[in-house]
Amino acid sequence: MKKIRKLMIVFFMAFFLFSCQNQDVTLHFQTNGGNTIEDVKVKDLATYDLPLGERDGYTFEGWYTDSLLTVPYAIGNVIQLSEVTVYAKWSKILSPYTISFTTSGGSLISDMTVMEGSTITLPSNPFFQGYTFGGWFVDQGYTEPFELTIMPEADLILYAKWIPNEYTISFSTSGGSPVDSMIATFGSSVSEPEQPLKSGYTFAGWVSNLSEPNTLYTFSTMPDHDLTLYAIWMVNSYTLSFDSTGGSLVDSMTENYLTSITEPGVPTKEGYTFSGWYINQTYQTAFVFDTMPSMDLTLYALWTPNIYNLIFYNDDGSVLTSMPYAFGSDLSGVTLPEATLTGYHFTGWNDSLPSVMPAMDLSFTPLFEINSYTLSFETNGGNNITALTFDFEETIILPNDPTKTGYVFGGWYVDTGLVTPLNYTIMPAMDLTLYAKWNPILYTITLTDFIDGNTEPSSLHLEVGSEINLPTPDPVAGYT
Length: 480
Prior knowledge:
Blueprint: H1 2-19, E1 25-30, E2 40-42, E3 58-64, E4 83-92, E5 96-102, E6 112-115, E7 131-137, E8 156-164, E9 166-172, E10 182-185, E11 201-207, E12 227-235, E13 237-243, E14 253-256, E15 272-278, E16 297-305, E17 307-313, E18 319-326, E19 344-349, E20 362-364, E21 366-370, E22 372-378, E23 388-391, E24 407-413, E25 432-440, E26 442-447, E27 458-463
Parallel strand pairs: 1-4, 5-8, 9-12, 13-16, 17-20, 22-25
Antiparallel strand pairs: 1-2, 3-4, 5-6, 7-8, 9-10, 11-12, 13-14, 15-16, 17-18, 19-21, 22-23, 24-25, 26-27
């Protein structure tokens, strides 16, 4: 289409030039920004040399017959009319310009030289630890992003915009209470979180490297990377105190948490047996000695009262009875036994009971007083004899034998039947009645018969009090 249009233009110009070749022609110069060239009148365009145009920064490329600069000026291309306008064509003399990069703390980027009008190819993005590159801007306030693709006729300074990255600080508490992670942008202010807790330990700080436990981390601003911090713990020492509740003193024990511990020496307390250490005075939970707990603790001794005996002896040293009582028991209501001893009466024990049971067995021996017994005499018709009193096992001294008319005293007997004679020489442990035995005296009645001249008497032998039954004599005649 463009070729057809050019051919038509050339045809018409040739036609007009031919028609007007003998006329003066006024030649106008449209320099298109170049130096001003005055119009000229020429007789014959074919013999006129067009002047060269001038323009700073440009190279003159020639005159054209159309404003679109598509048809170069040539005699064959010009219709010689009374007025002809030619158009200067220029080609830009290209200059190099510099693009400078201000990376604002990022990695350095060298200046680059780009010919004006050339396509701008930007270098690789800079790097800035802790930030994400946010693009190039033409102002330091980062309000106008750089969007040119063709190099302008000017040096450029581009400014890197940086967007701070978000990073996370995580916390490893090494057995302590959890601590939430901390998320913040690089460079922003960060404060130390609330300290974690760990039973038996004191928090000593955070470190970023467990191989350097003495280098504590300082919280100021968010670093340029994710970070894990590790809790450092100092083991606590605790004290076990011992309340022996009246027993012998036991020294306190101070050790680090979880250190192996052993039970101290057993305390002593009069009247009690030690039954262990407990964590409170209600004695519900016994303390186990294995490792030091995570707290100061007072342990309380549990005591079991010992059992002691009240031992009561017989007079011969044998045990009458043994009465067990716990140490400290109230003895005010105790009923004491009574010992017995033949011939004696019990008067009490050699010692009195204490009000409470002491921390030992108590032995008691009986006290006796000798008994006195009465020796009574039943004379069975003899003269009266006053009763005698003898202490037990005292030698019996009998009174004078009693008398009884018609009888001979036959001794003392211990029974009314006069079967068992007295055989005691010392007083037995009882009252005693002695019974007199009487042997009757035999009296003789002599009977003489004088009538018949019989001089041989007959006799009757009778006890006193016996009935006299005289015999009937033979009858004698003449006698009554």
